[in-house]
Amino acid sequence: MKSTLPHRDSDVVMMLYAHYFLASELMQKNYRKLKEKSNKHNRICQSDRVNLSIYFCTWLGFLAVTSEGFKKLSMRMLILNERPHDFIELIPKVDELGSLMKKHSNQLRRFRNNIFHLRENHREVEQFLEGQHNRLKWAEELQIVFGEFFSEYRVLCQFYYIIEDRKEEFLM
User: Cα(81)–Cα(79) distance, rounded to whole angstroms?
Assistant: First the structure.
């Protein structure tokens, strides 16, 4: 049985990308830019310090939601059973993300909960970054691999839209 690709506006993978991953990407970009400014000048004003914290926490919060959505969608099964056969080439990237998320996703989830909900434990935020684990480096790697996955997914969608003559969905 040949699976068809849902309409672009109904595709849960594209919704995950548009609503959560792009937000995490924007917040990471803003965080990096302000962090570089801080490092270059070796100081930071109060408003930039507040913004740096907001960008950092929001980036990791949206990254956590992206990870949870990816898992909740059972992405491997979704690709295998609910997408056209050509999408099977995404499985190695899906597996890479699955392995990567397992390392610290629970800690990232707790961090997110303490950012987006009234904090009960102020240490939880600090604990995410402490210890022997380099969770910040892990989060940056996770962000990159998600970016690669969504980029490849979007290319396959565009190809499918062209092949199936779904011009209204094709983005120029």
Answer: 6
Q: From 141, 19, 150, select the one nearest 79 (Cα to Cα).
A: 150
Residues near 89 by Cβ (< 8 Å), separated by ≥ 6? 152, 156
Q: Which of 143, 141, 165 is nearest to 28 (CA)?
A: 143
Whole-number Å distance between alpha carbons of 166 and 126? 48
User: How far, in Å, CA of 134 to CA of 116, rounded?
Assistant: 23
Determine the Cα–Cα distance for residues 167 and 41; give it in Å rounded to an integer. Answer: 49
Residue 76 makes CB contacts below 8 A (sequence gap 6+) with: 91, 94, 95, 98
The predicted-structure confidence for 101-119, as pLDDT tens digits, reads as follows 998 888 888 888 887 777 6
Specify the pTM.
0.89
Burial class (CB in 10 A: 0-12, 13-18, 19+), 150: buried
Q: C-alpha 145: how far from its chain's center?
A: 8
Among the ranges 37-41, 45-49, 120-124, which has the highest mean pLDDT value?
45-49
d(CA 2, CA 35): 48
Contact assessment for residue 148 and residue 78, using Cβ atoms and an 8 Å cutoff: no
